[in-house]
Write a structure and sequence with these properties.
By secondary structure, the protein is mostly helical. The protein is built from 15 helices and 5 strands. The chain folds into 2 domains: about 80 residues, no CATH class; about 230 residues, MetI-like fold. Strands 1-3-2 form a 3-stranded antiparallel sheet. Strands 4-5 form a two-stranded antiparallel ribbon. β4 and β5 form a beta hairpin. α1 packs antiparallel against α15. The longest helix is centred in the middle third of the chain and has 36 residues. It is globular, with a radius of gyration of 25 Å.
Length: about 350
């Protein structure tokens, strides 16, 4: 097990290195002057050059790339010479950190990955993402939970009642959900349930996680505002998992061991759920993990339309303001989530299917 996990982490590091390289060069060819974004368009030339020196933007691209990787690495190398801004050990940037060893003017430290600072707010990107991530995590978890529970019930029922009215109805729901774009579904749901029927549903057009009480005494957790964005976000994975569950269950229920279990007189419910559903879950787990990672990445349209303060809104705001460090940090954060989720999925495979060997 340990060897398997270490190997997956090893592959994951190479994937992340590729993403880091792509993100760096992609954002470095985009138009825009970070110094003028920070100082304003009326900034004088001397101030712009000073900011470029401070950010290391006057250095060759390959040196900027090495500094970028060094900042992201948990173990990084720095110098105490402030005249070398690319490698200077600035306490304001890297604290807290743990010094490992020193060789000449160079110091090796252990630290959290440094994602840079926002051009607009001057806040650390890690702080911005840490503030937005819990909202996205909550929304993605509720959306995926809704999609998985409802789709498994419908998919298993459709497989058991093959060619019935229920089966055909599930096919209609699946096709409708897969063909409905998220941004259109979000607008439609917001307009219908939070505007037209607002007096009856009591749902808010804007899904703020916290609300102020009637006496203005402070904020409280208002989970009703998660209903619309969670259902909207869960529509497409719901539709896909319904079809996948149905087809996978039909394939499993036609296997010899299912006929053997029935011939032994086992309870039909046990045959369906213990022997059938468990062996049909492998492709479903793959789909769920992929969709969950996608939702965790920040459902940009849904969060933006419902004003849900998650990573999706952070990305849109960063793109609108050309705040590249925020967007780059969000993309890298998403990549790390994808790698971690894929490792957990591989481990779950081995638990669900004995035929899958960790070695």
């Amino acid at each position: 097990m340990l060897h398997f996990i270490l190997r997956r982490i090893y592959y994951g590091i190479f994937v992340l290195l590729g993403v880091i390289t792509l993100v760096f060069f992609l954002f470095n060819i985009l138009p825009g002057d970070p110094a003028r974004m920070m100082l304003g368009q009326r900034a004088d030339l001397a101030s712009v050059e000073a900011i470029n020196r401070e950010l290391g933007l006057d250095a060759p691209v390959h040196q900027q790339y090495l500094r970028f990787v060094n900042d992201l690495s948990p173990v990084s190398f720095h110098t105490a010479d402030a005249k070398k801004p690319l490698w200077y050990l600035d306490p304001g940037k890297y604290e807290p950190f743990i010094p490992l060893f020193k060789a000449g003017e160079w110091t090796t430290i252990v630290k959290a990955p440094y994602l840079g600072r926002s051009y607009q707010s001057k806040r650390k990107v890690s702080e911005i993402l840490a503030q937005a991530f819990p909202n996205t995590m909550l929304l993605a978890t509720v959306s995926m939970g809704f999609a998985v529970i409802v789709s498994l019930i419908i998919g298993v029922g459709a497989a058991i009642k093959k060619d019935s009215f229920f089966d055909r109805s599930s096919l209609f729901i699946a096709v409708l959900g897969m063909s409905l774009p998220s941004f259109f579904a979000a607008i439609l749901m917001a307009w219908l349930f939070a505007y037209v029927l607002a007096d009856y549903t009591g749902l808010s057009m804007f899904g703020s996680l916290y609300s102020v009480d009637d006496y203005g005494r402070g904020e409280y957790l208002d989970l009703r505002n998660i209903i619309l964005p969670a259902i909207t976000l869960g529509i497409r994975p719901l539709a896909i998992i319904i079809e996948l569950t149905r087809s996978s269950m039909l394939e499993v229920l036609s296997q010899d061991y299912i006929r053997t279990a029935r011939s032994k007189g086992l309870n039909e419910r046990r045959v369906i759920f213990r022997h059938g559903l468990r062996n049909a879950l492998n492709p479903i787990v793959t789909t769920v993990s992929g969709w969950f990672a996608s939702l965790m990445a920040g459902a940009v349209f849904v969060e933006y339309i419902f004003d849900w303060k998650g990573i999706g809104v952070v990305i849109v705001d960063g793109l609108e303001k050309y705040d590249f460090p925020v967007v780059m940090g969000a993309v890298l954060f998403i990549a790390v989530l994808l790698v971690i989720i894929n490792i957990f999925v591989d481990i779950i495979y081995a638990w669900l299917d004995p035929r899958v060997k960790l070695s």
